[in-house]
Design a protein that fits this description.
By secondary structure, this protein is α/β, with parallel strands linked by helices. The protein has helices spanning 3-10, 33-37, 52-64, 77-89, 101-105, 111-121, 144-161, 173-183, 198-206, 223-230, 261-272, 276-291, and strands at 27-31, 69-73, 93-97, 126-135, 164-170, 189-191, 210-213, 237-239. The chain has a single domain (3-13, 24-291), classed as Metal-dependent hydrolases (TIM Barrel), CATH 3.20.20.140. Residues 1-9 and 40-47 have low confidence and may be disordered.
Length: 294
């Protein structure tokens, strides 16, 4: 399935209602507002970008439930430019820019594209390079070498600008660690939508990496993720939506949005045994250490 097809699939059904507000402010460390709100006509990767008014309303809905900090993430040159521009104009948003590993596997990590990501990474409100990494699920073996070359280039960009690295890891745990160990990880390295078990989480934590948990941690069949979250220190933990994907229970299968972060925060509070208010404060502190102040 293409990313645009996945986007259309995640827009089926009515948007879920907003949950009860959190006891303190938290954040969404990884969202795709352009996909949440933008139209994606068949055959057009990007379609019409969302209006400023629609984006502002979506962010306001997140703020209303205690999620005033968002990281908007690019997946190619166009969405990375859009993300950087949104962060520049909106005080609640910071940006991450990159070529998604599946874009790289399709041959789109050209010298010109990487040069543009490098340029964007130098902007003041761009605080991370990502999402980059490896995907052994949607990209076949013929694209793996290109993915790895792109991943290594993105690591270099993050280190050159002194900003965080946000990793997409799909069925590639060992390969990701191999590349990070080989290249040397940036000071702040985040595993977006952490998908490993407790053993992999322990190895990441030992290396100083930050694990970002998405709505998947609420799924009934994700006991291994809850075990991973239980051993992750709060100062190495983030929370995210990956909206419009990975909607948390009880709304799995409906469109995701940053305003649904409270469901995942409350699940993490239960798993970790940390008071929800303390957890919100800890997640916010981790977010500001990794991405800087909003």
């Amino acid at each position: 399935m293409s990313r645009s097809a996945a986007s259309r699939a995640n827009k089926r059904g009515e948007p879920p209602p907003s949950p009860e507000p959190l006891p303190g402010p938290a954040l969404d460390s990884h969202t795709h507002l352009d996909i949440v709100l933008g139209e994606r006509p068949a055959g057009d990767e990007h379609g019409e970008w969302a209006s400023d008014a629609a984006v502002d309303a979506e962010i306001a809905a997140a703020v209303a439930v205690g999620v005033p900090r968002l990281v908007q993430v690019g997946v190619d040159v166009a969405s990375s430019r859009w993300s950087a521009a949104l962060a520049e104009r909106h005080p609640n948003v910071l940006a991450a820019v990159a070529l998604h590993p599946n874009e790289a596997g399709a041959g789109k990590a050209t010298d010109d594209a990487l040069a543009e990501i490098d340029r964007l990474a130098g902007l003041p409100r761009v605080r991370a390079v990502g999402e980059t990494g490896l995907d052994r699920f949607r990209t076949g073996p013929e694209g793996w070498a290109a993915q790895e070359a792109s991943f290594r280039a993105h690591i270099g960009i993050a280190k050159r600008h002194g900003i965080a690295l946000v990793i997409h890891d799909r069925d590639a745990h060992e390969e990701i660690l191999r590349v990070l160990d080989d290249e040397g990880a940036p000071e702040h390295t985040v595993f977006h939508c952490f998908s490993g078990d407790a053993d992999f989480a322990r190895r990441c934590v030992e290396r100083g990496f930050v694990l970002s948990f998405a709505g998947t941690v609420t799924f009934g069949n994700a006991g291994y993720l809850r075990e991973a979250a239980a051993l992750t220190p709060v100062d190495q933990m983030l929370v995210e939506t990956d909206a419009p994907f990975l909607t948390p229970m009880p709304h799995r299968g409906r469109p995701n949005a940053s305003r649904l972060v409270p469901h995942t925060v409350r699940a993490l509070a239960e798993v970790t045994g940390v008071d929800p208010g303390e957890l919100c404060a800890g997640l916010t502190a981790t977010g500001e250490r990794v991405f800087g102040s909003w």
